[in-house]
Specification:
- The complex is a heterodimer of chains A (131) and B (202).
- With 131 residues, chain A is mainly alpha-helical.
- Helix content of chain A is 90%, strand content 0%.
- The longest helix of chain A has 80 residues.
- The radius of gyration of chain A is 33 Å and the shape is rod-shaped.
- With 202 residues, chain B is α+β, with helices and mostly antiparallel strands.
- Helices cover 16% and strands 49% of the residues of chain B.
- In chain B, a hairpin with a 2-residue loop joins strand 8 and strand 9.
- Classes of the chains: A mainly alpha (131), B alpha+beta (202).
């Protein structure tokens, strides 16, 4: 029973970490709640520990453990996927920022150059008029 | 391209770059969290309702062998999902109750526990069917041997003495909210408690 509870707690910790990473954990919580409900039933049951109920309890503990393990694995996978997606997103942002900065400086350079040429042309026109 | 057009191009490109920088800053989640203002203090809510989902009218004059339905509700206003434990405790007038000033739970042991996971900004309401199968009275004392909660039989063996002022044998069923702390890997009393006193009658 203690192991079943510990497996739920371990799964919950992973779910929390997944949630903090920005993943929707509704389905994980739903499945983990099934395990929690089974644990509630076990804890509140005060039936005599006959062989039959002992076997029943063991299968229930096994079910809790399986649910918790499934949620834990799903949470870890979701965290991995999220970290990959996050890294790709950051990379994309950096690339976009770099491209936009490059475009900006190129435009700035071109404009300044044209402005300079325009001023030279104006000055040359003025010079020829004076001459 | 004349001077006017060139100036326009220059301004447009500067505005576009600034917009891109602002978009980058807004889309960063950490910065979004840092910039969120006016967030209220996180807390958990525990409440008790009668069978009609009303706050008033919880069982008072309780008879043995009769079922009483109440609802216990929990709302999670914390910043993340939470793992709660509701401890149901049974006391007489002499027992020590939880102290919300010091944040101490009652030293009484739980007669029924219900754990549940709740997503942030979500709530859950649990039905609890209570019944006291038998009670014995002798002189100025009442003795409750067991309570059945949601079909589970909990041994209590709790006596109550006759209250001459309020004329009754008073017991209380109260609920404590405990919250799982992932750091210490243990449930901690969340300083939330609700309950109801009742007069045990024949």
């Amino acid at each position: 029973m203690v192991q079943a509870e510990e497996s739920i707690q371990a799964a919950f910790k992973e779910v929390l970490a997944t949630e903090n990473a920005g993943v929707n954990v509704t389905d994980m919580l739903k499945e983990l709640n099934q395990a929690v409900n089974l644990l509630n039933q076990l804890e509140n049951s005060n039936e005599d520990p006959t062989k039959a109920s002992f076997e029943g309890n063991m299968s229930q503990i096994q079910l809790i453990y399986e649910h918790a393990q499934h949620v834990k694995t799903a949470a870890i996978n979701a965290q991995l996927q999220e970290s990959i997606a996050d890294r790709n997103y950051q990379l994309m942002l950096i690339t976009l920022s770099f491209i936009s900065a490059l475009v900006f400086f190129l435009t700035l350079y071109k404009t300044r150059r044209r402005l300079k040429q325009y001023r030279i042309g104006t000055l040359q026109n003025a010079k020829s008029k004076v001459g | 391209m004349n001077l006017k057009n060139m100036r326009r191009v220059l301004i447009v490109s500067a505005v576009c770059t600034n917009l891109l920088v602002v978009l980058f800053l807004i889309s960063t989640p950490e910065l979004g969290a840092f910039l969120s203002f006016g967030r209220s203090e996180p807390f958990s809510e525990l409440y008790l309702l009668n069978q009609n989902h009303m706050m008033k009218g919880v069982p008072f004059n309780v008879k043995s062998g009769q079922d009483y339905l109440v609802y216990i509700g929990v709302n999670n206003h914390l910043s993340s999902s939470a793992y709660y434990e509701i401890c149901v405790k049974f006391s007489n007038e002499d027992d020590q109750l939880p102290n919300t000033r010091t944040g101490e739970p009652s030293p009484l042991s739980s007669i029924y526990t219900q754990r549940l996971l709740i997503a942030k900004e979500q709530g859950s309401e649990l039905p609890l069917t209570l019944s006291i199968p038998s009670i014995s009275f002798s002189d100025n004392k009442a003795l409750v041997n067991n309570i059945i909660i949601n079909g589970y039989d909990a041994k209590v063996d709790k006596a109550a003495t006759w209250n001459a002022t309020d004329r009754g044998f008073y017991y209380q069923i109260f609920f404590e909210l405990w919250l799982y702390d992932a750091m210490s890997s243990a449930f901690r009393f969340n300083n939330r408690t609700v309950g109801f006193w009742f007069n045990m009658t024949q």
